[in-house]
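Project channel, design review

CF: Before we commit to the Paenibacillus yanchengensis constructs, I'd like one complete example in the thread so the newer folks can see what an input/output pair looks like. Taking Gfo/Idh/MocA family protein.
RD: sounds good, go ahead.
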Amino acid sequence: MKQLRIGIVGMGIRGKLYAQTLAQSPYAKLQAISDSSSKTLELSTKQFNVQGYTQVEEMLDAEELDALIVATPDYLHRNPVLTAARRGVHLLIEKPFSTSVEEAEEMVAVIEQAGVKCMIAFENRWNSPFVAVKEAIDNGEIGKIININSRLNDTIEVPTTMIKWSQNSTPGWFLFPHSIDLALWLKQVKPTQVFAVGTKKKLIGMGIDTYDSIQAIMSFEDNTHATFTSSWVLPEHMPMIYDFKYEIIGEKGAFYVDLAEQMVRQVTDRYKHMHTLGTSINKQLTGAASYMLHDFIDHLRLDRMPEASAREGLLNTRIVDAIHRSIEQGTVQYLS
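CF: and here is what came back for Gfo/Idh/MocA family protein:
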């Protein structure tokens, strides 16, 4: 059986996770990798025993790839996406699709013109608590959704240590794509407008010019609403590096999802939650991102159109962009 040949550009935390997942697939293999850091590239080529390239163009010229995983920083998706699509290479792109509406529109146009398959990595669609909630909502268990309230926060370790490019991002670009995509996926109703406020206090005082937190309200054409709050300045010694709570209120009931509550609590010198979602079982990765990649591979080999399409990525980018414009202008932003 011929395996799909997949490349990865961006060998940070996500790129390595995708490489590890590919090693467990019977249908695909990691063919080559690319990273602009020569040190990262050297370490990754040794770890995964593949050819490495500092330029994605060089990799795509030298290797026959069926698909490319784009795991670069959020604001650096355009070049690898356009380069791969124009060569007929299918795409799995990290969220957000882009941090620029203009670039996102250009990317969609090229992807559709090339006829390649594209999936945006909205991984919570493959996260077991949300999968269960989606199934129950689709079965009518709580009736039509009236209200959604999302709170997704990170500790300050994320913008100060984990990602080196936080000054080129915000909690809006880094976190809201998850929360907003879930709302659109669960409700299946067109959003119409957003209003948002943001706070710059702590990080800017540390020399990182970005928002500490953002709060947004999004309205839908059925006259219902969702609220989103995201911050990435929680104390380092929180029980987990993230705190994700999602409330869905319907006409006949409600769901309350708490991903910070991981079913196991560990107490040693400090109290914390053990991260159980995604625990490897029989040496197999079981996290949402791994399930998502396996699904993407199935779409390619079975010639199916992926969900979480480039068009959905574009809408997500438009919404998060409108949220930032609302903060800057202090006005409601209408979504066309």
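RD: helpful, thanks. Residues 125-278+316-334 form a domain with the Dihydrodipicolinate Reductase; domain 2 fold (CATH 3.30.360.10).
CF: The longest strand covers residues 145-155.
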